[in-house]
Amino acid sequence: MRDYNSELSKKTGMPPGTLIHVGDKRVEEPKLTLVEYNGDNLEVHVSQDIDIIKDLEFAEDRKIWINVDGLHQTELIESLGKLFGVHPIVLEDILNTNQRPKTESYEDYIYVTIRTLFYERLENTVNSDQISIILGNNFILSFQEMETDLFKKIRQRMERPAGIIRKRGVDYLTYSLIDSIVDNYYLLLEDIGEEIERLEDELINEPSPATLQNIHELKREMIILRRSLWPLRETIASLQRDESGLIKESTDIYLRDLYDHSIQVIETVETYREMLSGMLDLYLSTVSNRMNEVMKVLTIIATIFIPLTFIAGIYGMNFEYMPELKWEWGYPAVMIFMATMAVIMLYYFKKKTWL
Amino acid sequence: MRDYNSELSKKTGMPPGTLIHVGDKRVEEPKLTLVEYNGDNLEVHVSQDIDIIKDLEFAEDRKIWINVDGLHQTELIESLGKLFGVHPIVLEDILNTNQRPKTESYEDYIYVTIRTLFYERLENTVNSDQISIILGNNFILSFQEMETDLFKKIRQRMERPAGIIRKRGVDYLTYSLIDSIVDNYYLLLEDIGEEIERLEDELINEPSPATLQNIHELKREMIILRRSLWPLRETIASLQRDESGLIKESTDIYLRDLYDHSIQVIETVETYREMLSGMLDLYLSTVSNRMNEVMKVLTIIATIFIPLTFIAGIYGMNFEYMPELKWEWGYPAVMIFMATMAVIMLYYFKKKTWL
Amino acid sequence: MRDYNSELSKKTGMPPGTLIHVGDKRVEEPKLTLVEYNGDNLEVHVSQDIDIIKDLEFAEDRKIWINVDGLHQTELIESLGKLFGVHPIVLEDILNTNQRPKTESYEDYIYVTIRTLFYERLENTVNSDQISIILGNNFILSFQEMETDLFKKIRQRMERPAGIIRKRGVDYLTYSLIDSIVDNYYLLLEDIGEEIERLEDELINEPSPATLQNIHELKREMIILRRSLWPLRETIASLQRDESGLIKESTDIYLRDLYDHSIQVIETVETYREMLSGMLDLYLSTVSNRMNEVMKVLTIIATIFIPLTFIAGIYGMNFEYMPELKWEWGYPAVMIFMATMAVIMLYYFKKKTWL
Amino acid sequence: MRDYNSELSKKTGMPPGTLIHVGDKRVEEPKLTLVEYNGDNLEVHVSQDIDIIKDLEFAEDRKIWINVDGLHQTELIESLGKLFGVHPIVLEDILNTNQRPKTESYEDYIYVTIRTLFYERLENTVNSDQISIILGNNFILSFQEMETDLFKKIRQRMERPAGIIRKRGVDYLTYSLIDSIVDNYYLLLEDIGEEIERLEDELINEPSPATLQNIHELKREMIILRRSLWPLRETIASLQRDESGLIKESTDIYLRDLYDHSIQVIETVETYREMLSGMLDLYLSTVSNRMNEVMKVLTIIATIFIPLTFIAGIYGMNFEYMPELKWEWGYPAVMIFMATMAVIMLYYFKKKTWL
Amino acid sequence: MRDYNSELSKKTGMPPGTLIHVGDKRVEEPKLTLVEYNGDNLEVHVSQDIDIIKDLEFAEDRKIWINVDGLHQTELIESLGKLFGVHPIVLEDILNTNQRPKTESYEDYIYVTIRTLFYERLENTVNSDQISIILGNNFILSFQEMETDLFKKIRQRMERPAGIIRKRGVDYLTYSLIDSIVDNYYLLLEDIGEEIERLEDELINEPSPATLQNIHELKREMIILRRSLWPLRETIASLQRDESGLIKESTDIYLRDLYDHSIQVIETVETYREMLSGMLDLYLSTVSNRMNEVMKVLTIIATIFIPLTFIAGIYGMNFEYMPELKWEWGYPAVMIFMATMAVIMLYYFKKKTWL
């Protein structure tokens, strides 16, 4: 997530409403998927061309879902926007892939933007893509930076005629799309949770500077993740409060459930962040502890042997008149004296619980 | 509480309303307890089969409490749900045992979910079970992951005909169930409080890396516990504010009391967390302090004996022309000089309050 | 304050409304003090028996204040409660001496609970008693865990016929009681403030592990104190907002004053807590500083004498062919060389500002 | 600011409304300044006696400002209060010089209390005086603990007949008084800001324990200052919201400006506090850094010379059968060996970037 | 940003409404740029004199934008203010270049003040200029401390007749001006983000006291930046809520977009601040880690060689009766004994994972 803001400046100085793709080009060619469905039928068309949409006939009993994978062909987005009457500033937001999650109500449609998140364990980073959804009267437009499995699964569920998703309106489909994204966060959090456990074990059993590095990186990702997820709560609450009539009452109960999930996700990130902070503090204490142990070993050795070496040094002096050197028992006497000193020292350290 | 999120991903990609038990299977067979009661009578039926409920006749003057222990037989839950008209998304929440505590009002019933907590001192962890309660017009459904003592005690109190619990409606019974759960938190907090006191004593008297480890683990549990308990306040406040008429005015005063308890519980967890943070800081200061003591001992020994050893080393040199070596009083003079140096050093350390 | 929660579990599993004294028995026998007063008269009766109250005649022009010292005789409390129509759940709160400060409005009376605080400097702990006050139409009931000076002083003020307290209603008396408790907090805070100053001086002049211990203990007490005092603000605000008519408009101005005091008390505790946190940080820096000083002394000594000792060691070797040993000026040359080295070292340390 | 709470307890146990001066006696004799003014005239009377006020005639077209310097003559305050119909509890607040800043609306007047602040750089402390202002229909009473320049300057501005202050009502004068106090905070903050810069430079260039001490003291003052200034915002907002009509609409725009200033002052204190916290953290890291440097020097010296000294020690042993001692080239061989070892060690330290 | 408050005191003691330029003189001569425009025409006049404005004719179908670069000629600002009916206190705010961002609604115009920010990487500081905008019925006045590129670009965009900016009212121009300032923040944040990345790399690969210094400085700038940007959100929200009719409904959608940007900017600053805090903590742990490594090297060397040196010292003693010295195999025996001791020590360190 290092480059989170790195392209924001690309647009500086441009008049608002200028359509420029801010973000990486993730796919070669944008792909358009048109799904027309109602309780009885389901038709799927895939194309790289906008022409298949131009001949589209709107009908009361047909719901339309158009999904775009790949955002760098701005003309495609612009044409789509004109066709469905989307305000240029919304199109600008769709193309600028650094949006905070948000819900905006317009006269004829609701614009929701949200992020999918991917945790890359090897690099300890969380990457994210922007998903934009426009919910109209009888249609949904969805925009992804690249094709993901998330929406494909929804499409597979739609193929079953008995599915609730076919019977209900496009508001329920919108809910399903957002729900699949939020559900995916749990996978992410589970992965991160496992990494935290692994790091905690490592911290206790064999801490190394790399452990410190990993904890720090993961905590930094949590700070950035929190920034990305914090607005999620308000995004879904805004959908719930929507008064345009585009969201039917029967969908409310599902949005409430989604709201609970979003809070749970945010709280988990917050908890992880606090746990990682605690682990960083623990690391510092542990290092201090081990330094203390090292110091004790050094001190014990030095405190025992430095005085003894001094005594040996005295009897190594070459003075002519040193009566002790002539004594027959001088050598054993000094040896016994030194041994006694060492024992007293060891007893002293024992009492100080350094041993 | 390590695996708090570990099964959340099981449901990813499923359509909403899919009934899957998310959590561990805690009992072999689910157990159904049916309690029919009013001021005069009390009948208890226990079964593993839903049939005993199918013949149930609803009567104005009879209140019904159905308790389910064990959630892994989803068909049982589904049948119960259909019988009492519970929305599938509520049943999904009952089976997904990772809910945050919450109160949700529906047209005909109120859904409350809350967690029971158990502190396992040996492992310094707090485990939790999810309890779900559905309060209807004249009935209560309660769902536990496994049988606990909490609800059994309520049932025993109900057997006394004079008890207030028999005379009042199912809203009072709901209160009693939640109250018994919240009361149980006090036991948990008391256990944790004792552990904190024990750790504080240990920290002051004989701190070891294990003490640090324990404080850290307990603090981590407090972070997770806070996340579990924080929504409790809102859960009970929502019950108080309920306008469906299912909660009678006479129960309000009890819910207010419960609300006070919930705040007290949350504040205690917060206080514990802050106290444990303080203890971690204290540990670091204590380790630094002790390292300082170790350093002082080393420095005193080294500072006294290293110069003395040097002097002894000088007179151990084998130069032919060293006049001092020939002096008769050379040896005692050097000894006195060295003793004087040592005394000066000790005086210097005394003045620096290192001794 | 260590045992703050230690008896909370005593009530677990009891039906609500069960009257059990949760707390220590602080007095041998409970004492009942009945004060009947109006502008003209004041009668005081003291008894250990409830009988003196049973014959009590209520009269429009007489105000009644009943104070109970000692809470362990639950029957006494129960009889009193029945006589004045107090709800059992309120009586339960009176007996459970671990309440948070709060104001609860009932139909005929207002229930206020608040804590008196005592700082025991020797043990660095803050102890607290629970005071409960029931303000009715023309009467006050007050409950203390043991007799204190606080209420006695109020009674003495009431004996002066000219006193405002005699002329005004029981709402003013309620204010006076709470005011005397809050005023007492200032004494507590002043004591703690002096202790903080003393510790700060100690920290700067002669820090010891005991200083650290004391700061930590005081900070812990501040955390617990904050928990006790935080609800005080809301308690008094609730009294101010009361709409039952039991609090007359003329008392409002006094409650506003009390409210200001309560905020001042809370802010002072918060300030103390932050100051103590700052002192803990300072302690750690100070210890590191002093360790740095110790290390410098060790390093200077070792860096000067270890190389010199090595040189002395070289000329102490017993090789047969060491020409220097034979030189006439060998010894003084080596001595001058060593002195030069020492001077260079000292200059280096000087430049590094270690000296 | 050490004695901030030290006299609060003086009033404990007194009935409310008792007029006692809580604070230091800062002037010998209280001084009364009476200013009568309107657009055309300005009369100033100074006296130590209240008599000059007693003959005061109120007139629609004359505005009156009475300023009192020195609060220890309670009778003077009391007489003034009675004359202008001020509630005893307000007089009590005026005399109790430990108030938080606040605005209180009464029927006929508004009571504002606010603090002037003085930074004493030598002691690193912030002292404060309490200013009380009573704004009535056509009069202002102001009370200071001692005479300051602030109000004198306002009086000088009033002497210019063209000044807006003469034309407008007493509400504008009130604004002017408060504005002059808040403006003075900027001076204080500028002084503290300069001290912070000085300390930061000292921290980077030549940190000493005294630097640590100063940063700590300044941070403590910021904690206390924040407590004093935090209520300022609400104080001025209350004035803005006032609905008594004493504050005219034309003054609103000035109060809004004052409100902005008060927020700016509070934010600056908060910023200073955070900057000082950052500096304390930096100090700890810097000390650790320098200890690390010291340790490296010690380790390099010890690691090079201890093994060499050992080798010299070996050839200083007096065994009769040590063949090396007899070799002609033994001595130079050992010297070369030792030099090689030293070079290898130095290379190793170079590689570890310790040199 | 060091001198942020340094001139605030210049105005102390002045009556409100006194026009004094508080800030540095950034340009030699103030420059006036008058832009008259509508959908069809655009006229630009540049002058240092106010006369060109005096002959200005207001017409319904012409919009006027007057930009002033350089604020130290107070008479110019005053004349402009009088001409357009701006309240003196607003002019005072325009000249006092230390304002917090804010929006103030007056009867006939809206006053917005906001800051441009420039990051100077070499000094690790963020400098800022104050921009004031007055939006009237058909005119805009804008005031800058010095000429910047930001507004010049807007003027260039206005020269294109097809541009939306020409067709819409002055409210849209106001939005465009603020938008160009906020867009510029992204450039600033990107620069700071890159510096943070660079510092993080440096921290991991080759931390030095200068790294610490840089992180600290950048964090301090973030604290100050947060103070400057925090009110931005409210500033734009106030514009959105404006009810004067000066802001047309069609501009609302653009302001909403601007509001999102402002939140994103604030959150990024907050995230940076937290990341820098994390890096400071990491630095401390890293230093401790490295000190630990240094200590281990010292301890290993000392623990191996000090006892060996002691043994060598023993056989260097000059006692006459030391039988070992006479043994033929004494020397090799001692050497083998010492080697064995060294090996045992090394094995012990290996087991302790110090090697």
Automatic annotation (TrEMBL), chains A, B, C, D, E:
Pfam families the UniProt entry points to: CorA
Subcellular location as annotated: Cell membrane; Membrane
Topology in membrane: Multi-pass membrane protein
Domain of life from the UniProt record: Archaea
Membrane-spanning ranges: 297-317, 329-349
One of the record's GO cellular component terms: plasma membrane
GO molecular function: cobalt ion binding; cobalt ion transmembrane transporter activity; magnesium ion binding; magnesium ion transmembrane transporter activity
Coiled-coil blocks: none
InterPro entries assigned: CorA_cytoplasmic_dom, CorA_TM1_TM2, Mg/Co-transport_prot_CorA, MgTranspt_CorA/ZnTranspt_ZntB
NCBIfam families reported in the protein's UniProt record: corA
Family designation: Belongs to the CorA metal ion transporter (MIT) (TC 1.A.35) family.
Protein name: Magnesium transport protein CorA
Organism the protein comes from: Methanohalophilus mahii (strain ATCC 35705 / DSM 5219 / SLP)
Lineage: Archaea, Methanobacteriati, Methanobacteriota, Stenosarchaea group, Methanomicrobia
This protein's encoding gene: corA
